[in-house]
Give the backbone structure.
Amino acid sequence: MRFLRKSLLGVRITGHRTPTDLTRAATTVVLLSQFYYLLIAYQMTTSSLRFSRAYEGIPPTAPQWPLKLVQQTIGVDWLAHTTTVTAFGLLFAISAAVAPRILVWRLGTFLYLLLHVALRNSYGSINHGAHILLFVSFALLFLPRRKRHQPQTRRGVLACLNVFWLIQVVLLLPYTLSGFQKIWHGGLELLSPDALTRILLNRLLAEADDIPPLLPFVSQHDLLTYAMWLLTIYIEIFAILVVFRPHLHRPFGIVLMLFHITSDWLMNIAFPNHIVLLGLFLVFSPLAPARLSPSGLTQSLPIIGIPFRAVKRLRSADQHRQVDRVQLIYDGECPLCSNYAQFLKLRQSVKELTLIDARQGGPVVEEVRRLPHDLNDGMVAVVDGRYYVGHEALNELALLAEGRGVFNRINRLAFNSPVAARLGYPWLKLGRWLLLKLKGVAPINPSQLPQGAD
Amino acid sequence: MSAHEGEGPRLVRKAASTRRRLRLTKYLIPLFLVLYVVMIPLNSVVEQEHSEVFPFFKWRLFSNIPDWQTNEYALVLEAVDGQPVEEGHYLIPNTEVRDWKALRLAALDCVRNVDCDDTVADVIFPLVIRSTGHSEVEFSIIRAEIDLREVQPQVDDIANGKTAITDFFQSESAIGRWNTEVGRISAPVQTE
């Protein structure tokens, strides 16, 4: 969770966020959930989620565990009343779309989907097309309750963001698992230039009566299939990392949607639910930057982005940029942190440095608390309104430190590399924890801070 | 009593509920990740009746890369209502993919000698009766070798209906012959 929360504050590639931005993002998450329930209601009225599509006219021949539970408690005769069951499901889904904050509606929709998907897979064969709806509905059960005109609390915002991250994990994890399964089972064959050609031709044997439209063209161009195969492996393996990199939400969402459309046109394998959900929760991600930044995108790309990030770091280390205001929020009860704050001297180009003891509270601490960051996870540096947390704060302050004095020289030498700061910061955190234990002081308890506990 | 007097305890309860939910959602992501990944190897241990524990998908889709030289199973009609049909009348793979999958599963059971006749009777008989519209059908399940290199330049012709997949069948071997009314009518062939 810490990595996820930091992904929002990792300013180097993300751009900075204010508490207002995050409150807005939480509101958008609720709005997206409304669209989601509308989609479910639509599918219940049209075809695929109608209960009659799951019930094959006879009791389940190979019941999945939810059906076994139902069978043991209330029997399965009522499953035949498909229209009534669909009507109940529709009632719940429409109500959840109108009032998504009320748990009963979301729970009702989830139970309907659980029964529908379980029943559909209880006749001997497995179809995974609707599993994703089940998982997303499960994640949405944890949306916090709030009345229409009530303001968002910090906990409410965080709970909404946690639910949103869970949905993204649910959506993207299967791609990564699929990628790793390919590595596990394919081995070195995975790198074979004709791997995809063979898969496509083998699939053609099953689709002889309905050849997919793109297959005749693509199967004749080995270079094209090889490029498509390598791209598939890349996006599948690294898909889960997209959750942590907001710059990739929209581009990866679009690429994955195209991936599904292409699979349909090449292999007749359609995942329409995935396409819509990728659109909702990745392309319309409230955590993605408002504008597509090519540099942010390239730096965020897994593996490919490493050299771009290194160049960016080198450049920013060389630059003596003008900084007006630095605020450092640290733990005043920790001797290590206090000494660090007291000895820290920034360059003359930095006009103002304010040291703030997190335990004393105050408006800046309150502002930081509204961000998805636990003050016990690390110090926070606010540099001209941008938030740096933990090792990133350590690195940023080392870059801004003046080169005079033993402490500041050591600080600059040790932590002006982001890698060194990343490796060194956990040891400093451990030092803080030990010192607090020795002093008999408890960690910072956000709910007991002088101001703004909710 | 004024409307605001009962608000205090209610707000405290609500704050506690939000706090509990936040704490829960905090652990949900790591829990979900661990559970999903752990369920992949555990699937076949925990679940005997199905191929995976509902709703955890193994995501093995297209993880096996086939060789150029591959096997294909087919269902050949031999007689309908006691009347022999023309030679080489393939019911599968000329039907939809769902039937192809069912045949493949049944054929694999027969190749492994696991509940072959039961699977054919449960899965293939209804399929054959539905597709032909007759209740007494005699059919064979065969296994054929296919060289995908030969298929590759002909994909356009297959798409246009000029060539059938069965035209690429090499060295066919029979897995068994059945009649939908009397069951198996030929001894099982030991393939592997």
Remarks:
- Residues 154-186 of chain A form the longest helix (33 residues).
